[in-house]
Design brief:
The protein has 376 residues and is of the alpha+beta class. The protein has a domain at 224-374: Up-down Bundle (Butyryl-CoA Dehydrogenase, subunit A, domain 3), CATH 1.20.140. It has helices at 13-29, 32-38, 47-55, 77-87, 93-106, 113-120, 223-258, 272-298, 306-333, 345-357, 362-374; strands spanning 125-128, 143-144, 150-151, 153-158, 165-172, 175-182, 191-194, 203-207, 218-219, 262-263, 266-267. The strands form four sheets. A four-stranded mixed sheet has the order 1-5-6-9, covered by helices on one side. It is globular. The two termini are 14 Å apart. The relative contact order is 0.12.
Length: 376
C-alpha cells in the first residue's frame, strides 16, 4: 500500500479539450512582448482579454449550473491555470475562482446565489485572507462586531483594484465568519497599493475598519472553517498548476537560448554542465504535472479529504521548487545578461518567488505532510 494512500491519476477528455483551447488562447493573447507591455499598467492585464476569458466561461467553470456556471468543478480550472502560467497571462481569474469556492463551500444552498451568479458571469472578486504577511498564520485578527461593523485590515488582497466584491475573512465571538463587502463600500483612503515581486500581479492592503456589513451579507456556521481549509488547499493547487506551466515555459526559453549562444566556438547547449540541469528541470516539470493532476483527480464538491489534502500539498511543494530552480538556472545560463531587466528569465524568477510564498512555501507544506503521512 502506498504511504500517500490514493495514487489515482486521471486526465479527462474535458480537461484535455480545455487545455488545448486555453493553450491556444493564451499563446495568442499573451506573448512575451504583450506581457512586458502590461508590467507597468495599473491592473497588470488587458481588460479586453479578460472579457474574452469571461465570454469563454472561465470564471464560472467551477461553479454549479444553478448559478450560471458550467458545473465542471475545480479540476476543470487546473488546465486553464497551467496554460495561463505558461504564457504569464495576468487577470483576476485565480482570485475570482477562489472567492467563489470559498463561498460555495461555506454556505448552505441556496444562500448567496446572487453573488455566485455574478461571479459566474464574470464579476471579479477576491478574498481578504491575510491579517499579516505570513501565509501560514491561522489566527484571524479582523473582527466583525455585533453591530455588523468590521475592524481590521487585510494584507496582499489580490486583484483588489478591479474586484467588485470582497469576501473578507473575519471572526465574531471567536468563530470564523465571511463578510461580503462590495467594492463601492471600500473608500479609496482605505486602500494602499502593495507592490509584489511578480510584476504580472497586483495587490492592495485594505483597512476594512468602519465598514458596516448587512446581516444577509455575513456567512456563519461550521462550514466556514471547513471552507477556509479548502480555500488554502485549492489555492495551493491552482498556484501549483500555474507554476508548473511557468516552469515549462522557462525551460523552453532557456533551451532555445542554449541552442543559439556560442562560447569558445561551440554552442553552450553542448556542454554537459548545462544539459544536466535542464534535464532536472524537465523531470521536475513532468513530476509537477503528475502531482497536480493527481490532486485534481481527487477533488470533489464536498470538503477535501485527507488524500486530497496530501495531494494538494505535494503538488505545491513540487511545483514551486521546480519553478524556483528553473528560474535560477535561467538566470545563470544567460550569463551577465540574465541579471538585466531585458532578459525574460527575470519574469520567471519573479513569478517563482511569488509562487513559492503564496498559500505556503514548500517547507510549510512538507511540515504538514510529515504529520499527515508519518503520524497517521
Amino acid at each position: 500500500m502506498s504511504v500517500i494512500g490514493s495514487t489515482a491519476l486521471s486526465f479527462s477528455e474535458d480537461q484535455a479539450m480545455i487545455l488545448d483551447v486555453a493553450r491556444s488562447f493564451c499563446r495568442d493573447q499573451s506573448t512575451i512582448p504583450a506581457v512586458r507591455a502590461l508590467l507597468e499598467s495599473a491592473t497588470g492585464f488587458d481588460p479586453a482579454v479578460w472579457q474574452q476569458m469571461v465570454d469563454m466561461g472561465w470564471p464560472g467553470m467551477a461553479l454549479p449550473e444553478a448559478v450560471g456556471g458550467s458545473g465542471l468543478g475545480v479540476a476543470a480550472v487546473v488546465p486553464v491555470m497551467e496554460a495561463m502560467g505558461r504564457s504569464l497571462l495576468g487577470g483576476p481569474l485565480l482570485s475570482s475562482v477562489l472567492a467563489g469556492q470559498l463561498l460555495l463551500r461555506s454556505v448552505a444552498e441556496p444562500a448567496q446565489e446572487t453573488l455566485l451568479a455574478a461571479l459566474a458571469a464574470g464579476a471579479p472578486a477576491t478574498v481578504g485572507l491575510l491579517d499579516n504577511h505570513d501565509w501560514g498564520a491561522r489566527q484571524i485578527r479582523c473582527e466583525l462586531g455585533v453591530d455588523g461593523v468590521l475592524q481590521g485590515a487585510k494584507q496582499q488582497v489580490m486583484d483588489a483594484a478591479v474586484a467588485e466584491w470582497f469576501v473578507v475573512v473575519a471572526q465574531q465571538a471567536g468563530e470564523p465568519v465571511l463578510a461580503l463587502v462590495a467594492a463601492a463600500d471600500v473608500p479609496a483612503a482605505a486602500r494602499r497599493e502593495h507592490t509584489l515581486i511578480d510584476c504580472t500581479r497586483r495587490a492592495q492592503a485594505i483597512d476594512f475598519s468602519g465598514i458596516k456589513v448587512a446581516e444577509d451579507a455575513v456567512v456563519r456556521g461550521p462550514r466556514v472553517a471547513s471552507g477556509l481549509r479548502d480555500l488554502r488547499l485549492l489555492g495551493a493547487l491552482l498556484v501549483a498548476a500555474e507554476a508548473g506551466g511557468s516552469a515549462a515555459a522557462c525551460l523552453d526559453n532557456t533551451v532555445e537560448y542554449l541552442k543559439t549562444r556560442k562560447q569558445f566556438g561551440k554552442l553552450i547547449g553542448s556542454y554537459q554542465a548545462l544539459k544536466h540541469p535542464c534535464v532536472d528541470i524537465l523531470v521536475g516539470v513532468d513530476s509537477t504535472r503528475s502531482f497536480v493532476y493527481h490532486a485534481a483527480t481527487l477533488l470533489g464538491e464536498d470538503a477535501l479529504d485527507r488524500d486530497a489534502e496530501i495531494a494538494c500539498r505535494m503538488a505545491k511543494a513540487q511545483a514551486t521548487e521546480t519553478l524556483k530552480y528553473a528560474g535560477d538556472r535561467a538566470i545563470q545560463f544567460h550569463g551577465g545578461m540574465g541579471f538585466t531587466w531585458e532578459c525574460d528569465a527575470q519574469l520567471y524568477v519573479r513569478r517563482a518567488q511569488w509562487s513559492q510564498q503564496a498559500y505556503g512555501d514548500a517547507q510549510h507544506h512538507r511540515k504538514q505532510l510529515a504529520h499527515l503521512l508519518l503520524d497517521h
